[in-house]
Each structure stands twice: as C-alpha cells, then as structure tokens.
Amino acid sequence: RDARGAPAAAAMEAREPLRDVRGALRAVLARLRGAGRGRAGFGPSRAGSPRAELCQTFQVTSQEATKLSLAFSRPPLPSAEDCQKLSEDVQNAIFAVATVYYWLPKGQGTTLRKMVRDATTEVVEGVIQLTDTILSAPVESLPQEQLISTGGVWEACEQVSNLPRDNQAAVVSALSACLGVVKDAVEEMEHALVEGQDPYGDIMEDEELGFRGNRDTYWSEADRQLLSSCMGLMKASKACLKKVLAAVKAHGKADSPEHIAQLDDVADIANEISPSVDELALSMYPPVNPLAVRLNAAKLASVLKKVLEIAKTSHVCPPSEEGWVQFLNGAVDHNMNKIKNFTQGQL
C-alpha cells in the first residue's frame, strides 16, 4: 500500500509550488479589488503605450496558463522543479498584467481605468480558478473542469482587444450598457401594462397568493393613471441616455484633462439612471403604494435633471445640442408634476 501511495504523494508534493502561487495571486486580486474603492493608487505615466503593453501581458498570461494546464493534463506529471518553473512563469505574467494596470496614468480617465481594472481582475480570477482546479484534481487525470478553466483564462485574456482606446470610447461603452438595461426595463413594464394583462400571469395560483381575483395582483384604474406618468418618466430616461450617448459620440474628446474629467462626470451620473429606473419599476407592481411610487419617481427625476445639467455644462453639449436638453428637462418636469398631482391626496 505504501509503495502504491508513493507516486501519488510525490505528485502532490510536485504541485506544492502552485499553492504558493495561488496565495500570491489571491493577494494581487485583493489589491485590485481594493483599487476600485480608492485604496490603491496609480503610478506616474511612463514611456510606451499602456494599451500595447496590456495586450502583450495578457497574451503572455494566456500562453503561460496554457503551458501550466498542458503540463498537468497527462502523465508524466511535471517534477517539483518543473512545477516551480511553471508556477513562477504564471506568477510573473500576472504580476506584469497588474503592473501595467497600476502604471496606467491617472489622467487617462476613471471610466477607462475601471474597465481596465475589471478586465485585469477577470484574468487574475481565471488563473486562480485554473490553479484551484489543478490542485484539487485527482493525480494523473484531466477533469472537464480543467479544460473549462483554461478556456476561461483564454476568454478573459482575449477581452483586452475589446478594451476602449481612450476615455471617450470608454464612456460611450458605459453609456451604451446603461441604455441597454434601461431599454429592457421600459419594454418589460410596457408589456406588463398592456390593457387587461395580469402582471403576475406567469405565477401559478396557490394558497398563499389566493385565487386570481385578489386585487393585490391587479392594477386599479387609478393605479394605471399614475403608472402612465411613471412610464413617461422611464421613457424620458431612455431618451436622455440616447441623446447623451449620441452627444458623447459626436462631440466627446479625450484630448485634455478637463475634457476627460467632464466625460467621467457624465458617465458617473448616468450610471445612476439604471438602478433608479429599476427601483421605480419595482414599486409600480401591485399592490401599488402611491407614496413609494412618488418617492422613487422623484429620485429618478432628480438623477435625470443632474445628468442633463452635467451634460449641458460639458464640452459634449455645444449650442447645437441645447434644444433636446431643454425638451427633456420639460418632459421630466411634466411627468413628475402629474405624478405629484395623482398622489397629492395620499400625503
């Protein structure tokens, strides 16, 4: 029994350097996540293109992860010495990726930096997952999980080619993502509000909900009048994002610290639209609490007014864009005033 166990014990020992690497990568990951909360800074700018360096380091990481996976995919498994070398190469590749992120100049924009950080984090998470899989796999076997983990690292590394070239492109990407989410929310609520439709039609009747005549599962006529104005506010959110996105595409520049900072301000406040739309939509389902609806509508209206104000005072809104800013401000006020009128008796 001891003789048979000797190769297995040796193989486990050979993997030991991987445990050390996993620990080091977890520390890198923790620091990257901390950078998102302002605990870790960026170094000063240095020569060379951060994007080109990032592409190169991601490619090297993909190659080193592949070598590591192949080494543990079939017998004979690597010796302790070989495993040490493989582990060091993977660790150095990840350190290089993280270093390029930390050297990314502050002045290039917080929206761009966040996207680079997210891409870097995904690569580190992928390599940690791969080391976990190798360490937990039975000796001399290639589990499906290892193939999946390796593919995950490849995918994460390939994402570098999709990273925006500058902060203007990063803000366009961020606004497009927000617009997609808001469009979905508007369509979902429009679908639910179709005349006569039961918003809980996809839920089977059961003892807790009561039978289908329960008024808590339907909108009253008064509810529908209130929700019509809420829909107007949600549609104004969609229009606002579309117009701001078009303005950033047409006029946005990442050619000076002031312009880059203005783009970040637009992206930061626009990021608040989607959660605010979601909160309003959730409060619109029966049983409707008019005061909760009014509160959430007021929050959304406030965010939209801020978005329009920040966009208007930035370089993305030259005089040619002022017309839609004024129109959407009016649309927000109009719908919010109607919501206040419908809920006045509830105060």
Automatic annotation (TrEMBL):
It comes from the Eukaryota. It is found in: Cytoplasm; Nucleus. Residues 54-193 form the Cyclin-D1-binding protein 1-like N-terminal domain. Belongs to the CCNDBP1 family. PANTHER family: CYCLIN D1-BINDING PROTEIN 1 (PTHR15492), CYCLIN-D1-BINDING PROTEIN 1 (PTHR15492:SF1). Its main location: cytoplasm. This is CCDB1 protein.
